Amino acid sequence: MDHSLIATGLRKRFGQTRALDGFDLRVAPGTVHGLLGPNGAGKSTAVRVLTTLTRLEEGTATIAGIDVRRDPAGVRSRIGLVGQAAAVDEILGGEQNLVMFGRLFGLAKRAARARASQLLEQFDLAEVGSKPVSSYSGGMRRRLDIAASLILSPSVLFLDEPTTGLDPRGRNEVWRAVRQASAAGTTVLLTTQYLEEADQLADQISVMSAGRVIADGTPDSLKSDLGADVVSVVVSDPGRLAEAAGLLGRVAGAEASVDKDARAASTRATTGSAAMVEAIRALDAAGIELDDVSLRRPTLDEVFLTLTDTDTNTKETR
Amino acid sequence: MSAIRAGWIITLRDLQHWVRQPAMPIFGIAFTIMLLLMFAFLFGGAIEIPGGGADYIGFLLPGVFTLTMLFGLENTMAAMSEDSKRGVTDRFRSMPIPSSSIVLGRAGADLLYSALSLAVLMGGGLLLGWRVETGLGQAVLAAALLLWLRFALLWLGIFLGLTFRGAGATMAIQVLVWPIGFLSSVFVSTETMPAWLGAVTQWNPVSITATAARELFGNPTGVTAGLLSTHAVLLAVVVPLAITLVFLPLSARAYRGLGK
Ligand SMILES: Nc1ncnc2c1ncn2[C@@H]1O[C@H](COP(=O)(O)OP(=O)(O)OP(=O)(O)O)[C@@H](O)[C@H]1O
Ligand SMILES: [Mg+2]
Asked: Where are the domains of chain A?
């Protein structure tokens, strides 16, 4: 299968900062790929390099089979970009924006108008199409931004933190827009700091830290790759929480973390349910009363923190 | 798509801005008219023009035309830095259009706006008693020289707008155009200034273009001696050309710098 996007060994420095430091990525056609990373991980730099906005120093990248460095103009005619700032004209109306961008994409006046009204309809903006964008909500602005990058039905759509700064409603609207774009066959590369967003939208996730991808996989495989289920207990007597955590840790063979406010102790256990049964026995034998016991998969947040923590730790000890 | 065509579509965007928010261009022009009236009536009687007799209006109008070209600098700079801050420039850069079209679009919109302001001010000047004492050909040449200065300042504005993107930078230019505008022959002849000041201000590009415009319109120039009295038109061609030759490459470099 030919990938829609292949990046190998990308490097980009800003002075002393290595914004990209051996960045590799493959995105399969028609999928939504989430690029997940904390502030300063290099997400925007990756997007800017791949969309030809920033010059690449080292490495190779192809979009829909076209080399980013050798044929940037060719790449530009195959992509749509929704940058970190909503790049639409504030004074013009939504429709005027789409017509202007459509004409810049080479559509004739009438075709540009037809495409604009089609997109306004598709993204639920038909009613406000003639109002100035400055009167739009954050979510509406973002949807217009996405519509503007879909005018020519690009092969790959790049979205750089499309929901940062939006309220939950705006976020849901944008999620719906991304799903629509994807359903129409566009390959999507989406950067985000929010695990929930990647979990909701992405077929594949790459976790990024310090300019490199440190883990790849589907949301589910990432969760189970870290293996361990989480066993947690809630004690009735807060005075015995430390003791409970100690026992739990000994049974699972790993250190247990303690949440004093919730009177909870939890730990990772590779053996899952067996560890839980054993923990309950041990706690019962010690006479520690429990209010609640649970066994669950780790959240993507925990996966993310574990991954980025180990990454920084190995860096420090290197 | 050709750079000219794409540039024109981007220029149209500014024209749509004027329709959507007419207050902006209207106040811009009204402001210059206010300045014109203030000087014509408040100080007009008190200002003498060497070799020009009592025709202060004739002296003042070409000066104000030139000042309008200078004030255009802030528009260019503000529009350029606003677009690159908002990400609109990045969107254009990610599209399959020649990169020069973005700058061409800006140039088209700003020159059109300045030409429009010039036409309105000329109309207002005629009402106030300003006259073209020569012929149509020379009047057209004068207008062309005024827009030629505006063209040169375009590159300075684009360079500044791309290089200094903070809100403070635009403010700084809005403040700086005042001394640059006033330390020239726009309102008073440089020959009536203290000698050292006159020597400096007569070489202000604004003074040079204003003097050339006065000469071509057949209005009093307020310049009776020196190179400027004999070669104003030539200087008004050469000086903006020099500004363009410096700042066009610099703004192209600043533009390429966006991709660094
Ligand atoms: N134009 C630039 N000049 C200098 N340093 C830069 C530039 N762009 C990015 N950097 C630096 O490169 C690193 C990666 O930045 P980048 O914007 O790609 O991160 P990010 O993952 O998008 O972060 P965020 O979530 O905050 O948007 C950061 O340390 C940043 O300070
Ligand atoms: Mg970013």
From this structure: 5-217, 227-297
